[in-house]
Design goal:
The complex is a heterodimer of chains A (632) and B (829). Chain A is of the alpha/beta class. Helix content of chain A is 41%, strand content 15%. In chain A, the strands form six sheets. A five-stranded mixed beta sheet of chain A has the order 9-10-8-7-11. A five-stranded mixed beta sheet of chain A has the order 13-12-16-14-15. In chain A, strands 2-1-3-4 form a four-stranded mixed beta sheet. The longest helix of chain A is centred in the C-terminal third of the chain and has 18 residues, at 485-502. Chain A starts with a helix and ends in an 8-residue tail after the last strand. In chain A, 53% of the residues are buried. With 829 residues, chain B is of the alpha/beta class. Chain B has 28 helices and 36 strands. Classes of the chains: A alpha/beta (632), B alpha/beta (829). Chain A binds chain B through residues 307, 309, 324, 326, 328-329, 477-486, 488-490, 492-493, 496, 513, 516-517, 520, 523-526, and chain B through 42-47, 49, 57-58, 60, 63, 82, 85-86, 89-90, 92-93, 150-152, 154, 175-176, 178, 194-195, 197-203.
């Protein structure tokens, strides 16, 4: 659609409005469009071959002029990709293969017939749901930011303009003063979406008031929390929304230069952002004298190099400056002295993407969504033991239960919910008793966790909470920059203790020491990484103390997960099919055909392969804990 | 002033002070590990955490600014507990057996010899034992009971890095306080050390794990002195333990004269530690002062006893025999064919007595110092004119003009002053020279010229600054003049110049010109004299005079059989064959050239073994203090001369103490008027030159053009400069006695531009022949970005053939200083 937006520079606000109208008027709502989700998850699957196959099928049927095909941003329904949506009918197909392409074109496009086998099945009702808008995963969300992902081809600026993109910017440039902008943001109650949840308006105001030039804007796209990929999807799928937010922010604060610090592990996001920047510049929406208003602002992409700590704002700025990413003390805050000592505003991807929405709707309207302390919507990445792994955008105040059960579709394989971890390695595990908690910044803090960047990891009865604590702590220990004693050595000692507990070498003394260490690290660390690293340990100790006690007092892992504390045994469901014998990595299983097989406990290394290959209907291999002497 | 409350006590501090400054003022103990007063605060060790009302958590006192009305508690139960826990964590990584062991108190006092182990597993085996910052904090925080470390040891088992000279790095002891990183960044400006890796792997190291020598390290020792543990340790004093005594003295290796404390144990000098006595902000120490002293003084090649040549060999003899041999040699020599040459490394007392000896004992007019060879133009009249610069003047100047010098190598501490001033934006550096130096990285403007063109450049600059017309229009000269004039308007200017101006046929004229430039700029002037007492040499020489042959002429005479007696006090001859009848060498080491032909060798005590005084390049007279007894039967220079005088029955040399010499010196040489050892104890003493007394510049040194230096031609297209970039004490290059220096000083060879090397297809390190009209020498090629095309430089000693053969010895007719520029061609071997 870029052709429709024209390739020439737009020289004024009114010219932009004409262009936007032209683009929208050309949009034929009766034309058939096939959208293939092109996010990283679907692309890592077969999304691109699917797209190619669809292209061939369209050509074969001579439909090129009548049917459009585009690769869009991430739809967020990642468990069920590759996703294909046919509009205007709104039919949504999941788990599409290239082989299905021809059928989709011939049946759905030409005949408006639905292909049953490609439809989503609601696990609660066991019914097929043909239309995208009816799928509970989508219908229960409030997709203010992610809606764009599903509609735009992020490498085409025209798509973004067609759905109303850059209108907030023109409104700002034509009608609003910088103070007006900050006022709208204040009314909206927007809080930083990166994790700290600091009031965006206050941050902008402080930066605006600080004398100094030039001023800088930074978009923190380092997104280091394991399991979190909201920012990735927004950057890949709708990069212009972030650029527009940054432009508006720059106007409000008086900045001329912006940086987007993207982690190097997001090549698609970097690529799409780069294209978006280029196209915005071509159209006069970025660079000098934007839309002829005399407003200058340009953006540079700065790539990370694989360090989690560079998501911390002072370390991030050091990294942009070419120095080692080690946090420094605040004050002074970035608003006072940031990049190269200049006043700097640094915000998360989602925060920036929310700004155009606020300007378009108005701050008061935006504030109607959410709770008293958490306004608007938040994108969460719902992962782990959940049926509908993916990105969910919900209003603040929704309960955890709704997210997990209604949107997430509940726990797979009929297992029981155990805990949900929020806020990544800085957050905590929340047990079942708090599932009706209304999600916002304060409520999560009250139960010992944090909102963080929005990662939500669901855990079931097979998840060992000691292992979870160990997992997160190992991560932070490896990523610690090493500057301060408590984070560098304290977390290392904590990891050592947890490893011993997992091996069955733990003592009650260890639990006490773990708790003490956690407090020391939390209270004395220099930056947020260290200050929050003990949180997973502290919350699991608080809510799942019995699991720790079982490990320490009984050498037992209640979740049957810790390899040193479990053993495998074949029960009398066994029909002697011999599948496990073939697959066993250490030749530990023996037995005659059609007779009960046996595992040699000395040879067994508890890899779990036998469990996996034993047919689910038979399920003859059982896990047990604690290890007891078994006659060999 | 800001008032705040600390543990209930009212404390007043200046604006900008930290909470830690306030606790120190109130004498309240707050432990620190990563804090160092002269470095920026870091806040990494977390030891200085305090509780501040209204501030959440536990902020670190070193990084928190004191605010009026702040209420601070350093001693709450929680704070004290947290500090102990933090220390415990450190001790779980740091080999701490000696801190935890119950027997440590008894062990501390005995078993000193057990401190000689390869791997440090506890304090007893650590090079930093009893001087360790961590030990100290642990003792203060845990007191008598000592720490208990309930965590398993996380000892990292990293091999000790011994690849570099002087410094060992044992990362197992590192507590990552970052003091070395900050010291390197803020005191040496090279940023050689930094943090690497993350998490449990985090460590301090160099880029790509190169050695310090391969990186940008200056080996100034700032990191070693900053390190609170034994991680960065000086190899030479590793097993010594704490010093028994400290003697305050002056460094003898260059004319800056940094103040040091020599650590002494069992009559040996075990360390040289910089003292903060000077007026400048710099940590005054460089590689030589910091690391070379111990090895130099202790070298096995030192002369311990007198030697006399019998049957072609030098044999040990008692003093009486040696003195009689010298006396006999003096008696049988014609005074007009006798000469004494002394070194700028000798003390004021030595030099004064040497002049007196030449006049009264040898009765010869031929007495001169080695200074003649570098700063000849300064001799015979006032060295610095009416406005001598001090180091503090360099710190305060708005602009500094550096002509014909590379202070980064030759006067590191001075270069650091200039580099800091440039980095902090306080001063603009203008450099004039035939090639680039490390200082070029900090320069606001450079004037590059061909070797030998100095005089012309100075004339142009002088014209520009005086508002005159004429001369070739040169952009760089105009720019330099602009910068200097602006600076003059804003504050003050300083002018520094070196051998690049003085070792020239135009040396005397150059000197006039640079003083003229300084006058026009109302600038203070500083010649970068080389040896510790070159200034004393100038002032004493100015007063007592040299009426006869000068140094280079004496060498020439000795070569051509016109010398009966040659007395070398602390100096060596140029390479060549000599035909003097009787040669006396008086030195610490046997000189390479003169040692071959010496008839008598008299052992001199080192600078650590004598009392005396030096005059530094500022004109500041500073004390040299004896720290240990002389080696063997060696003696101070002045004492040997006095004994000889006695032997020959000459009156006036009955000195018991060097203070007596100073008293006489103060009367005989106007510069030293008012100087005495008592006066030197009380305050800094600056000698005053005649020009300063009069308030004007010295009289003209004569006019007329000197013969032109040889310029390049078709057959000999390169201009060769010989500059032996090495530190010399008396007659010995330091690197000969201290091998570590040889590894880090500029490699010996021929520096040429990268383009010339490419055109001639010469690879780095390849041997090349340097050929002039008169001779040839071989050297290793060292292409360098800093050397401009058309210029080549012989650096350091090494290679075959003596550079002397390449030159024709040309002397400035007025100052008698030699010039070493000639035209050559380069050929691949």
């Amino acid at each position: 659609m870029s052709e429709e937006a024209g390739n020439k520079r737009i020289r004024s606000v009114s010219e932009f409005e004409e262009t936007a109208m032209a683009v929208r008027s050309k949009h034929d709502s009766t034309k058939t469009w096939i959208s293939v989700c092109g996010g990283t998850s679907c692309s890592a699957s077969e999304a691109r071959p699917v797209r190619e196959a669809l292209q061939e099928a369209i050509a074969k049927n001579r439909l090129k002029k009548k049917v459009g095909l585009k690769l869009t941003g991430c739809h967020g329904f990642c468990e069920h990709g590759p996703l294909v949506v046919v509009s205007p009918d709104g039919v949504c197909y999941e788990r599409v293969k290239p082989e299905d392409a021809a059928e989709i074109v011939e049946k759905t496009v030409l005949e408006h017939e639905v292909i049953e086998r490609l439809l989503y099945v609601d696990p609660k009702t066991q019914e097929k749901v043909p239309l995208e808008k009816d799928i509970p995963f989508y219908s229960r969300q409030t997709r203010v930011l992610l809606a764009g992902n599903m509609l735009v081809d992020s490498t085409t600026i025209g798509d973004y303009i067609a759905i109303g993109g850059y209108q907030a910017l023109t409104k700002v440039l034509a009608e609003m003063s910088p103070e007006d902008v900050i006022s709208e943001v204040r009314k909206s109650g927007l809080r930083g979406r990166g994790g700290a949840g600091f009031s965006t308006a206050i941050k902008w105001e402080a930066c605006r008031q600080t004398p100094g030039s030039p001023k800088y804007l930074i978009c923190n796209a380092d997104e280091g929390d394991p399991g979190a990929y909201m920012d990735r999807s927004v950057l890949e799928g709708n990069p212009h929304s972030v650029l527009e937010g940054m432009l508006i922010g720059a106007y409000a604060i008086g900045a001329e230069r912006g940086y987007v610090y993207v982690r190097a592990e997001y090549p698609l996001a970097i690529e799409h952002l780069g294209i978006a920047i280029e196209q915005a510049r071509e159209h006069g929406l970025l660079g000098s004298d934007i839309l002829g208003t005399g407003f200058d602002f340009d953006v540079t992409i700065s790539r990370g190099a694989g360090a989690f700590v560079c998501g911390e704002e002072t370390a991030l700025m050091a990294s942009i400056e070419g120095r080692r990413g080690m946090p420094r003390l605040r004050p002074p805050h970035p608003a006072e002295s940031g990049l190269w000592g200049k006043p700097t505003t640094i915000n998360n991807v989602e925060t920036w993407a929310s700004v155009p929405v606020i300007v378009r709707k108005g701050g008061d309207e935006y504030a109607r969504i959410g709770t008293k302390s958490g306004k608007g919507t938040k994108i969460f990445s719902l992962v782990g033991k959940i049926n509908n792994t993916g990105l969910v955008e919900v209003p603040m105040g929704i309960t955890l239960r709704e997210i997990i059960e209604d949107i997430g579709g509940g726990i797979p394989d009929g297992k029981r919910f155990k805990a949900i971890q929020t806020g990544g390695p800085s957050g905590g595990c929340i047990p079942e008793e708090h599932l009706d908690l209304r999600v916002d910044y304060e409520s999560l803090r009250e139960v010992g966790s944090i909102m963080g960047s929005g990662g939500m990891i669901v855990m079931d009865e097979t998840t060992c909470m000691v292992d979870v604590a160990h997992y997160f702590l190992s991560f932070t220990q490896e990523e610690s920059c090493g500057k301060c004693t408590p984070c560098r050595i304290g977390t290392r000692q904590m990891v050592t203790i947890l490893e011993r507990i997992k091996r069955g070498e733990g003592t009650p003394e260890d639990l006490k020491q773990l708790e003490e260490l956690a407090q020391t690290v939390k209270l004395t660390s220099l930056c947020g990484l260290g200050q929050t690293a003990p949180n997973p340990v502290l919350t699991t100790l608080r809510y799942f103390h019995d699991e720790y006690e079982a490990h320490v007092n009984e050498d037992r892992c209640p979740a049957l997960a810790c390899t040193d504390l479990i053993y495998f045994e074949i029960n009398d469901n066994c029909v002697g099919c011999g599948l496990c014998v073939k697959e066993c990595t250490t030749d530990a299983i023996s037995g005659e055909r059609k007779k009960l097989h046996r595992i040699d406990q000395v040879k067994c290394m508890r890899c779990g392969t036998c469990v996996a290959v034993c047919p689910p209907k038979i399920a003859a291999v059982e896990r047990h804990s604690p290890v007891r002497a078994v006659a060999s | 002033m800001i008032e705040l409350l600390i543990d209930g006590q009212k404390v007043e501090v200046e604006e900008g002070a930290s909470v830690l400054d306030a606790t120190r003022k109130a004498k309240i103990f707050v432990p620190t590990l990563c804090y160092q007063r002269d470095l920026s605060p870091f806040g990494g060790c977390r030891m200085c955490i305090v509780a501040i009302e209204g501030v959440p958590g536990f902020p670190t006192a070193c990084t928190t600014r004191a605010v009026p009305g702040m209420v601070v508690r350093t001693d709450t139960g929680e704070v004290l507990e947290l500090r102990k826990k933090l220390l415990e964590l450190l001790l779980s990584e740091h080999p701490s057996s000696c801190l935890i062991c119950e027997d440590r108190n008894g062990c501390w006092d005995s078993h000193e010899c057990t401190g000689r182990a390869e791997i440090t597993t506890g304090c007893k085996f650590c090079p930093n034992h009893s001087r360790c910052g961590l030990e100290y904090v642990v003792q203060r925080v845990f007191g008598e009971e000592g720490p208990t470390v309930k965590f398993p040891s996380l000892y990292r088992a990293i091999p000790i890095d011994r690849r570099d000279p002087f410094i060992d790095r044992d990362d197992n002891l590192c507590i990552l306080c970052g003091r070395c990183v900050r010291a390197c960044a803020e005191q040496s400006f090279t940023c050689t050390l930094d943090f690497m890796y993350r998490g449990g792997e985090a460590r301090v190291g160099t880029a790509f794990n190169r050695t310090l020598a391969e990186s940008d390290c200056r080996f100034c020792g700032a990191c070693v002195d900053a390190c609170p543990t034994g991680t960065l340790a000086e190899r030479a004093r590793r097993w010594e333990g704490p010093a028994q005594d400290r003697v305050a003295t002056t460094c003898s290796f260059c004319s800056i004269g940094c103040q040091f404390d020599f650590g002494v144990k069992n009559d040996r000098v075990i360390e040289a530690m910089p003292r903060k006595d000077g007026e400048t902000r710099e940590r005054e120490a460089c590689t030589r002062g910091r690391f070379a002293v111990v090895e130099f003084v202790r070298s096995v090649r030192r002369l311990k006893t007198p030697l006399v040549r019998r049957g072609g060999e030098l044999v040990e003899v008692p003093w009486e025999t040696a003195l009689e041999a010298v006396a006999e040699g003096i008696r049988s020599s014609d005074p007009k064919r006798s000469a004494l040459i002394y070194s700028g490394s000798c003390t004021n007392e030595d030099i004064y007595v040497a002049h007196k000896f030449a006049r009264d004992v040898l009765q010869t007019p031929h007495v001169d110092g080695s200074l003649r060879l570098s700063y000849g133009p300064l001799l015979g009249s006032d060295a610095t004119g009416a406005s001598p610069a001090r180091l503090s003047d360099l710190e305060e100047a708005e602009a500094v003009l550096v002509v014909g010098a590379d202070p980064d190598f030759s006067h590191t501490v001075l270069a650091l002053i200039l580099e800091r001033a440039a980095m902090e934006g306080r001063a603009r550096l203008v450099l004039v020279g035939p090639y680039g130096t490390r200082l070029s990285d900090y320069a606001a403007c450079e004037i590059r010229h061909a070797p030998g063109e100095e005089r012309q450049v100075l004339e142009w600059l002088h014209k520009r600054l005086s508002g005159g017309e004429g001369g070739e229009p040169r952009e760089d000269v105009d720019r330099a003049a602009e910068i200097l004039e602006t600076a003059k308007g804003q504050g003050s200017v300083a002018v520094v110049y070196g051998t690049g101006l003085m070792r020239r046929l135009d040396g005397a004229a150059n000197r006039q010109l640079v003083e003229g430039v300084a006058k026009v700029l109302s600038a203070k002037l500083m010649p970068l004299l080389s040896r510790a007492n070159d200034r004393g040499s100038i002032e004493i020489g100015a007063a007592l005079g040299c009426q006869g042959l000068t140094t280079a002429e004496i060498f020439e005479a000795a070569r051509t059989g016109k010398m009966d007696l040659l007395y070398l006090m602390g100096e060596d001859l140029w390479p060549g064959s000599y035909d003097a009848k009787f040669v006396v060498v008086q030195d610490m080491f046997l000189p390479a050239e003169a040692g071959e032909i010496a008839d008598v060798v008299l052992p001199v005590a080192s600078f650590a073994e004598v009392d005396g005084s030096y005059t530094n390049l500022e004109g500041r007279v500073q004390r040299l203090r004896r720290a240990i007894p002389p080696l063997g039967v060696s003696k101070p220079d002045w004492q040997i001369l006095a004994r000889l005088a006695e032997q020959l029955g000459v009156e006036g040399f009955q000195y018991q103490e060097p203070s007596e010499i100073m008293a006489e010196l103060a009367g005989a040489v106007p510069f030293f008027k008012g100087a005495s050892y008592e006066a030197l104890e009380k305050r800094a003493f600056f000698g005053k030159s005649q020009a300063q007394e009069r308030g004007d510049s010295p009289a003209s040194a004569g006019s007329g053009r000197a013969p032109r230096s040889e310029t390049p031609s078709a057959d000999y297209p390169f201009s060769l400069l010989v500059e032996f970039d090495e530190y010399v004490h008396r007659a010995t290059p330091l690197s000969w006695q201290v091998p570590g220096l040889a590894r880090i000083e500029p490699a010996a060879g021929l520096a040429l531009s990268v383009t010339d090397a490419e055109v001639l297809r010469i690879q780095p390190g390849a041997p090349v022949s340097v050929i002039s009209r008169r001779g040839r020498v071989t050297a290793k090629a060292m292409p360098s970005e800093r050397t401009p095309p058309g210029v080549v430089r012989l650096v350091g000693r090494g290679g075959e053939g003596s550079p002397a053969g390449v030159f024709e010895l040309l002397l400035d007719p007025i100052s008698k200083a030699p010039e070493e520029i000639c035209a050559v061609r380069i050929e691949r071997l």
